Amino acid sequence: AGGRLWGGRFASGPAQAMAALSSSVHFDHRLAPYDLLASKAHARVLHRAGLLDADELGRMLAALAELEEVVASGGFAPTVADEDVHTALERGLVERLGPLGGKLRAGRSRNDQIATDLRLFLRDHARQVVLALGHLQEALLEQADALADAPAPGFTHLQHAQPVAFGHELAKHAHALARDVDRLRDWDRRAAVSPLGAGALSGSSLPLDPEAVAAELGFDRAAANSIDAVSDRDFAAEFLFCAALLGVHLSRLGEEYCLWASREFGWATLDDAFSTGSSIMPQKKNPDVAELVRGKAGRLIGGLTGLLATLKGLPFAYNRDLQEDKEPVFDAVDTLLLVLPALAGMVATTRFHREVMEAAAPEGFALATEVADWLVRRGTPFREAHEVAGACVRWCEERGVGLESLAPADLPGISPLLDADVLAVLDVRGAIEARSTPGGTAPARVREQVGALRAALHAQ
Ligand code: ARG
Q1: Which of 126, 218, 237, 386 is deepest in the core (most CB within 10 A)?
Q2: Is the CB of 24 under 6 A from ligand 1?
Q3: Domain 16-106, what fold?
């Protein structure tokens, strides 16, 4: 049978093209540590079932521990003949134990093994992603706190809308990331189901103990249906959704930094360590971190849609199509763990130019709402107040000036409802202070949010 796990009924080995198509060891080899964990749990169960005696169990566990070591040190190289990670590790076991190495396969199948391995891998790596996300949240909150009272233009439709505290802009990203963390935690609850014991699809006639194996591997429970156990890839698809949405959040954050660092905005200067130059234009300093993050959101979305397309229409239970589940998942994890530290570094080291943002804050008649709100406080219906404030804007626009240029003498000509008191609300800082409703942009509210986000982050 060569090194294969399935040679008995075949007169010949696979054609070279068949073997090349079938092979997954070049990418699933990274599941080896998780496969070995599951193997140790399975060995103990075989022992309790009376299928391995105490001496055999001892030798089996010692060989698995040795394999863990060589795998960790990079000393265990899969060969071209190893179809997948399970084949490679069984070979390693047989090389160490002889025929005893062949006993471990009793009662399990690669179908329940691979589903278990991938869940273990993902649960482990989701925790790493949450940790890396925490560093980015930290960096955002630090800057948000420092800029909690810095006036800046606020946009809708990328047009000046109303002034906001810039810390409010930064903190909004931290909220999106907090939801991502929450989503991954919630995902983990559903991922914490062990497929091991399902065998190929129907369970096992051997007296195994799937619940004990589940507990040993840190799962909350064993799968309740063996067919579902080997065909369910919801955990992978759902993880990829979490990763894709996180990617979308990071991309939107990246886009804003690109805008802020542009000459037209001039709000931010990126640190040299987190920007790049041009091979032809000596003056260039480009926001490549932000752009790469924006770009990589595309591959995260692609991974999700690719896996959903793979799963759609698959009959139950295991089908070889499912081998396609791993690469998008690995790629998503690798992408996030690459992108998050760079983004955290970029955010932490960006310098913002308060004076530029503050000077731009009232531009574009951004205080027009203050005029309308002032009238409302005096009893004018908002519908009419809106018209009057609009008339102020038109009056100023026709003269090429801003609302701050309005003088007491101009007001009666615009509307009899206006008097000199209204000029007091045409103040950026006052306008921001005044937006003190819960969740509003008043600096005190921004500090409150930052405090709550920090507390949630440190409670993790
Ligand atoms: N390499 C396979 C996968 O990734 C492992 C399971 C193989 N099972 C099988 N019946 N061929 O899905």
Answers
A1: 126
A2: yes
A3: Fumarase C; Chain B, domain 1 (1.10.275)
Outline which parts of the chain fall under CATH 1.20.200.10. Answer: 111-146+163-225+233-352
CB of residue 114 inside a 6 A radius of ligand 1: yes
Q: Residue 195 CB: number of other CB atoms within 10 A?
A: 29
pLDDT over 80 at 460, yes or no: no
Which architecture, in CATH terms, is 360-459?
Orthogonal Bundle (1.10)
Average pLDDT, the chain: 96
28 contacts 89 by C-beta, under 8 angstroms? no
Q: Model confidence over 298-351: pLDDT tens digits? A: 999 999 999 999 999 999 999 999 999 999 999 999 999 999 999 999 999 999
Neighbours of 280 (CB within 10 A): 6
Give the tokens for residue 29. Answer: 């080899």
- E-state strands within 248-321: 268-269
84 CB near ligand 1 (under 6 Å): yes
Comparing C-alpha atoms, which of 364, 369, 361, 441 is closest to residue 159?
Answer: 364
- Return the residue whose CA atom lies nearest to atom 3 of ligand 1: 323
Q: Does domain 111-146+163-225+233-352 have CATH number 1.20.200.10?
A: yes
Tell me the whole-structure pTM to 2 decimals. 0.95
Q: What is the pLDDT of residues 275-307, one digit of tens each?
A: 998 888 889 899 999 999 999 999 999 999 999
What is the rounded average pLDDT of the residues 254-273? 97
The pLDDT value given to residue 1: 53
Binding site membership of 318 for ligand 1 (Cβ less than 6 Å): yes
- pLDDT of residue 145 exceeding 90, the answer is yes
Nearest CA to ligand 1 atom 2: 323
Other C-beta atoms lying within 10 Å of the C-beta of residue 224: 9
